Amino acid sequence: RGEMHIxxxxxxxxxxxxxxxxxxxxxxxxEIDGVKHEPVENAVINVPDNMAGSIxxxxxxxxxxxxxxxxxxxxxxxxxxxxxRGLLGFRSIxxxxxxxxxxxxxxxxxxxxxxxxxxxxTVGSMISGETGSTMAYSLWKLQERGPLFVGPATxxxxxxxxxxxxxxxxxxxxxxxxxxxxxxxxxxxxxxxxLTPIVPISLESAIEYIxxxxxxxxxxxxxxxxxxxxxxxxxxxxxxx
Length: 241
Known about the structure:
The protein is an alpha+beta fold and 241 residues long. It has helices at residues 3-15, 52-61, 84-87, 90-98, 136-142, 203-209, 232-240, and strands at residues 20-22, 30-32, 35-48, 65-72, 75-83, 103-113, 124-128, 132-133, 155-156, 160-165, 171-173, 214-218, 223-227. 23% of the residues are buried.
């Protein structure tokens, strides 16, 4: 079971006209002899030889332990034991690293002692600090900070995630701000703004992207991302606790 099965269930619900919010998927822990245990899966991966290194590195960051490695006919077969938490959201990264040329199979194997926190996302979020409609001028200024999820003239609200922040920390921004109009015109100042294409948010990518303090908001027509606490003051208060 993985993100795809969750996405199929949610897609069925939204097609029936319902709206819902989902949080980051969590695995079911067990306490065995007073020690917290988590599910561990056996992953079998087949990739071209030149891509094996990046896969080993990616799974290593997710607390994976390599059990076997075999190279044959320019392909490398890898066997890993990985906590289920580490595999959540990994499929899209796997497709990106292998350019669709690898295969990944995984299944539950056993419970093992909890291995600690797993950092899966290295980027932060750009969070709207205002409610209104996005302006092309603001998005043009913000796009250098990371990929955007929304285009111009998109209705947004305070606490909504509008893009990634490359620095790895969350950033509150104002995407509703328009260019200040003056009577002074400099050469080239009124050239058309060049916006990079937005990153579309699919149901599966939303489930993979969100962190523990974020929600994916699903409606029959849209998929949006938001913080659990919409105002910056509420988020600061929560962090202080």
